[in-house]
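Title: Prediction job returns without error message
Component: structure pipeline
Severity: low
Priority: P3
Assignee: unassigned

Description:
Job completed but the reporter wants confirmation the result is attached to the right record. Sequence as submitted:
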Amino acid sequence: MGGGLDGPGINSLISIPRRKLVRRSFNPARSTLLALTSLLIVCLTAGSVLAGEAPETPAGPPPASGAISLEAIGRYQAVGAEISAYDPGSQRVFVTAAAEAATEDPVGLLQIIDISDPTAPALVATVNLSDTLGASPNSVAVYDGLVAVALEDAADPQADGRVGFFDVDGALITTYPTGAMPDMITFTHDGSKVLTANEGEPGDDVDPEGSITIIDLSGGVMSATVATADFTAFDGRENELRGRGIRIFPDKSTSQDVEPEYIAISPDDSTAFVTLQEADGFAVVDIANATVKDILPMGLKDHSRGVIELQQYGF
C-alpha cells in the first residue's frame, strides 16, 4: 500500500467489525487486515507465523478512540519464520526460514502457508532453496501472484546473489543476478520493478561493495532487465561525508563501507530511500536511472534529555 496510515484504505479497515475476520469468504479489505495481523505477530513471535494467544492487556490508559486493535485467531508452528509476505489473490503467506539440519549447515527454506481459513493455517509447500539453488533466503515479497525472494549465495555470502521468482505454488520461474548479499527485497507500488538492498558485508578476506539492484519487469518476468545503483561516485569523498555526519570507517572507500539494509519507495515510484544503518545515514536513489543521488545523515539522538518510558508486553 502506497498511502500513509491516514489514507482511505486504512480508515476503511478500521471500520470493519472484528467478527468478520473469521469468515471464509474472500474480501480484499478484510484479507489485507488479516495479513497485517499475521505479519505483526510474526515479528513478535519467534518461529510462529500466527500466534495462538492474544497478548495480555498492558497496564496504563486505554487506547485512543479509533486505534487499531489486534486479536490472535490462528497459529501455524513453522520450522522457522523470519520474513513473510502475503498475497491476497491466493490468500497465502510466504515465509523465509533457515532450518537447522542434524548434521549439516542451516537449510534455506521458503514456506507457503494457506490462510484462506485464518483460524486454521495450513502448509501448502516447502521449497528447499539450499538444494535447488544453493542459496539462503534473506527476504521475500509478493505482487499479484508473483513471489520474489532475495537469495544469498550459501557457499560464499560475499559473492553476488540472485533474485528468484516463483509462482504461488512455489514453482521456480527464473532468477536474475544481484549484488553481494541481497538483503531486503520489495516491489514498486505498481509492480513494474523489484529492488534489492545488497548489503555487501565484509568477510575475512574480502569486502564487497554495497549496492541496490533494480529489476525492471515491465516487459514480463522472463524478459526483465537488471540495473545496479552503486556508490562508486562517492569514493574519494569520504572526508566530505564524515563532515556531514556519515560514518565511514578509516581506510575504507564509501562503496565498500556502506551496507544497504532497508528500502522505502516514494508513492510515485520514482525514488527509493535506502537505509545505511552502520553509516548512520540513508541513500536517495533515482529508480529510473539506477543512480544514487545523495547520501544523507540520520543525525544523533540526545539521550541526556531523559530515559524513554518503556512498556512491557507479555506474549
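Comment from assignee: result matches the submitted record. Residues 28-44 form the longest helix (17 residues).
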